[in-house]
Amino acid sequence: MATLSVGQLLRQTAARLTQSSSPQLDAELLLAKVMGVSRSGVLARLRDPVQPGIQEAYEELIARRELGEPVAYLLGRQGFWSLELDVTPDVLIPRPETELLVESCLQIAGPDAADFTVADLGTGSGAIALALAVERPAWQVYATDRSETALAVAAANARRLSLSDRIEFRQGDWCAALPDGLELDILVSNPPYIDPEDPHLSQGALPFEPLSALRSDEYGLRDIRLIVQQSLAVLKPAGWLLLEHGYNQGAAARQLMEQHKFNQVRTVKDLAGLDRVTLGCRS
User: In the chain, fewer beta carbons within 10 Å around the N or the C end?
Assistant: First the structure.
């Protein structure tokens, strides 16, 4: 059988990835991983013959992608904010929508808040905590997760990015993981918020992601409610709570905050115009 060129292999592979919304990009990124070069390095070699062993290793990844496994898990990496994060099936894949939490935190604090104390609950890969630590090096940042394996991924990301000295990682359930007596300026979380009966849990990348980080009882609102309740014990007066939630949960999140006497409660829409982050100031 004639040896394929890199370009021919990419064209054949993209034609196979019919379930993907970005088949050509998927094919290029996965081949770059196998070849040990950047995506631009792959594109610079389109006329080169595929080297021995490459096609076999590539086929293994493509077969997994055809079954729906997310590219981020196959690569072991995902971009978030200005960072490249290691990701495994122990953590959610960071989404662009979650960057809105980071943006909102920075806007609330303003450029002159040098000594803020902030906690990211349910940190997963560490995406939110790491982004805040990069943007505000003087902040004291805590990152918590109930999952030991998720915390290990987050801590490894912090070490690789030379941010370990800016973040304290703690295992536990929501605010119970935080040190006794801690007073926060900002509490931020992207908690589980999908209704267990939501059919989306069986679609797309979600079946490959940790269910405990996706699904929440009480129509997806249980963990949001718990965090709102518990936040009162750890936020300073005039401290801020910011929560990511589903597109149809903005009204419920605002109601929960208002019931617990938060002020300036509002919901921020994402780039698609959907309710995504609700925030409020502790009275």
Answer: N
